[in-house]
């Protein structure tokens, strides 16, 4: 589904990604962890070309997204993204938030888009909020809507960038539960997170990044039982 070779990304003189190799299969759930500033968000953003890679190749379903001839908008339709700060449209209600992209980008009919949106609201447990505006929702509810909104485009991949970091502790579980059920349904997911419980029990693989390189890429079981690097153990000691 995703194949990254020797990816490098610099901002001016600052080398942020220094040769990333990574393959992710269909249906895999991969957690990316690592200290702040190690390049996790930049890596995710390169995957849908929100950042332009400096060097290397990124293939999504065998399409090299760095080639000028690749229609990046088509590729993006297939990649959902969920951010730390929800980014819902504040002046649109929940139903409108969920239908705007399918209506505009996929040319869905209004009826079909709304039916699909209601299905998704049911799935994230928020059917009763279809007419609410984002500022009438809790953080956990906003994030569940953001996930439903990503799903409305029927992507094959969803990228999550610290989806629970901005939430009050009591709201973390409701969001993780939605993510867990997506994982169970076979969604391909790349999840930057500090939630070690999720990495341990839901992710198939854990990637540990440090200073722009991948230091570990292991099954989650092996990662937590037997990390290879001192640096990983230090990091885990600090956050566990
Ligand atoms: P992480 O998500 O692991 O905390 P980031 O990928 O956000 O790390 O950032 C990695 C490094 O790249 C940091 O030093 C950050 O300041 C820098 N950086 C990220 N985005 C930009 C940008 N648009 N311009 C300049 N520097 C950036
Ligand atoms: Mg980040």
UniProtKB/TrEMBL annotation:
Which keywords label this protein?
ATP-binding, Nucleotide-binding, Transport
For this protein, the record's Pfam families field holds: ABC_tran
Would the keyword ATP-binding turn up in this protein's UniProt record? Answer: yes
SMART domains documented for this protein: AAA
Which stretches make up the ABC transporter domain? 2-236
Listed GO molecular functions? ABC-type amino acid transporter activity; ATP binding; ATP hydrolysis activity
**Keyword flag Aminoacyl-tRNA synthetase:** no
Q: Which family does it belong to?
A: Belongs to the ABC transporter superfamily.
Q: What is this protein called?
A: Polar amino acid transport system ATP-binding protein
Q: Which organism is the protein's source?
A: Cetobacterium ceti
Q: What is the lineage of its organism?
A: Bacteria, Fusobacteriati, Fusobacteriota, Fusobacteriia, Fusobacteriales
């Amino acid at each position: 589904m995703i194949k990254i070779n020797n990816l490098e990304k610099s901002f001016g003189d600052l080398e942020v990604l220094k040769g990333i190799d990574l393959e992710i299969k269909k249906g895999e759930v991969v957690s990316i962890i690592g200290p702040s500033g190690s390049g996790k968000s930049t890596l995710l953003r390169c995957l849908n070309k929100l950042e332009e890679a400096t060097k290397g190749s990124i293939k999504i379903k065998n399409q090299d997204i760095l080639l000028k001839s690749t229609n990046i908008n088509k590729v993006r339709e297939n990649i959902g993204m969920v951010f730390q700060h929800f980014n819902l449209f504040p002046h649109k209600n929940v139903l409108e938030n969920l239908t705007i992209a399918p209506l505009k980008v996929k040319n869905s009919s209004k009826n079909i888009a709304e039916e699909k949106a209601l299905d998704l609201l049911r799935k994230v447990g928020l059917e009763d909020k279809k007419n609410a505006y984002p500022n009438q929702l809790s953080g956990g509810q906003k994030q569940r809507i953001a996930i439903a909104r990503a799903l409305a485009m029927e992507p094959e991949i969803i990228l999550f960038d610290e989806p629970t970091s901005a939430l009050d502790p009591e709201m973390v579980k409701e969001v993780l539960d939605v993510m867990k059920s997506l994982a169970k349904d076979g969604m391909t997911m790349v999840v930057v997170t500090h939630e070690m419980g999720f990495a341990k029990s839901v992710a198939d693989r854990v990637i540990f990044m440090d200073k722009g390189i991948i230091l570990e890429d292991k099954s989650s079981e092996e990662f937590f039982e037997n990390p290879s690097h001192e640096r990983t153990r230090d990091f885990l000691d600090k956050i566990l």
